[in-house]
What does this fold into?
Amino acid sequence: MFLFPVEKRIAEHQAFLELWWSANDSLPINKIDSAFIHSMPISEATKRSLWFRRKRNWPFNDLEELHADRYLKEDSLFFTLGTIDFSIPIETASRATTIKAPIKRPLPTRKWTAVDINTCDSAALDALPGIGPGMVGVLFRYRMRYGFIADMDHFKSNTYYGESWRQEWSTLLTIDSIPPPKLSLEYSTFQELLDFPELNYAQTKRICFYRERFTVPTWKEIVEWEEFSGVDTTFLQLYISRN
It folds into this structure.
């Protein structure tokens, strides 16, 4: 009974990683030594993998190669939150003629199956390329907060994954099933409307006052209200019906 819920534990872990990155402008991943590696807030398996590559002078060339390393998958959230510096140490570059990098053989092409983000479970998400526990937690918290995901653009603009969005995710993460809105301008209570993340107290009060004094407002009327100035009411209609 004293254990933290999974959602809270994930959130606190993310906050800890963000605090670490706030103290580090960037991570020169091809220049860090063993002492620095072992001080990083990552798993032991990831530390071993980074140190192995460092000893062999086997640098990462770009972000895509970093995310593709299956030994670092467990800490995908950590590498997503900050800026990675891929510059190569001078000594490594000067020895390039005498040290051969491991031969990288192309992996067989694998066809991934797209998943519906409103019905899939965490295992189905975690199996997709580049998606680790961090993104799974973010996506599930968003889905729990709104009830379902109706607009992927809103998800990307309201989470840090929008800045690191990978092109293949647009194909693999689909919205095939959108349930009908659970909220209603006519029947939902003041508290139910207020609990919706995109409505504030003034907006909720105006809706309830109007329907009690006159009738159920239309979205065309709501758009004209001062309380909804600048609000994307098109998005609201995905979650709140009029009747």
Summary: The longest strand covers residues 27-28. The radius of gyration is 24 Å.
